[in-house]
Amino acid sequence: MSEAMNALIAVMARLRAPDGCPWDREQTSASLARYTLEEAYEVIDAIERADLAHLRDELGDLLFQVVFHSRIAEEAGAFDFDAVAAAISAKLMRRHPDLFAPAAGVARITTSAERLVNWENIKAAERRAAGPVAAPISQLDDIPAALPALLRADKLSKRAARVGFDFDVAAQAADKVAEELEEVRVAAAQNPGASPSPEVVEEVGDLLFAAVNLARKLGVDAETALRAANGKFERRFRGMERLAAARGLEFEALGLAEQERLWREMKRGE
Q1: Residue 75: how many other CB atoms lie within 10 Å
Q2: Is residue 40 located within the same domain as residue 72?
Q3: Which pTM value belongs to this model?
């Protein structure tokens, strides 16, 4: 390993030493989970802002999380950072056999689409090999339940599509979105209470899942698209507030019609 990597591992060991940092010594992998997720999102934020200096720092924070979890596991006698690095290296080599272990007659993969198919095929074979003989093997195995719901919906629908459970064309997925939206309308009309009924919650979930499936059929990453939509909404809403303030108006006091006019004004200005 590099000198810098060894130094980071040594820093982690010092923090976890008996006379080290009380906070770091108290942590477990479970208590660190939320911080690991936060650091991953901060990496994404730096990437989306094209802030390379910030990206360097955030990647460092995320790397520290890997070192932290590895140190906790090492103390428990399970594995250490070297084992983590060795495992991912081995996995990458195993899933790129045409590059690292070419066999006679095996064609070199030249496109991203081919690589993704080959990667998933190897991954599926690994799942079959790892599972007990008597255990049923599902295409949906090893999709983490803790993934963000939007990302997990995308992965679930992709796995189902691998074995043919999929729409032929995007237009059919769009029809499914329209069908689910109508079911939301019906459920909402039948349950007009102040709090959403279980039926309304279920139908809204079906609508969101159908929308993610449509995005997949159109080749759109749903998470990226929604993040962009969030950014657009935030930009326009902040613009509306600025316009109202510049005109001596209190945005919160405006009626919906007036707010809508400001929205359209912001939209035209983009």
Answers
A1: 11
A2: yes
A3: 0.68
What's the number of domains the chain is made of?
4
Q: CA Rg, the chain, in Å? A: 25
Look at phi and psi of residue 219 and say left if phi exceeds 0, alpha if psi is from -120 to 50, else beta. left
DSSP class of residue 233? H
CATH of the domain at 153: 1.10.287.1080
> Token pair of 248, please?
């001596």
The range of the structural domain enclosing residue 32 comes to 3-94
Flag whether 49 is in a domain.
Answer: yes
Residue 116 maps to a domain = yes
136 belongs to a structural domain: no
> What per-residue confidence (pLDDT) applies to 193?
78
Given this model, what pLDDT does residue 265 score? Answer: 94
The pLDDT score that the predictor gives to residue 184 is: 96
Alpha carbons 7 and 71: distance in angstroms, whole number: 14
**What are the residue ranges of helices labelled H in 143-255?**
149-162, 170-190, 198-217, 222-246
Q: Which of 149, 169, 268, 124 is nearest to 209 (CA)?
A: 149
In a domain, 138, yes or no: no
Q: Report mean pLDDT in 10-residue bins for the chain, 270 residues.
A: 93 97 96 92 92 96 98 97 96 92 80 89 82 68 86 93 93 97 95 87 96 96 91 94 94 94 92
The CA-atom distances, in angstroms, between 154 and each of 122, 164, 172 are 20, 15, 17
What 182-186 contacts at long range (C-beta under 8 Å, 24+ apart), as own/partner pairs, is 183/207
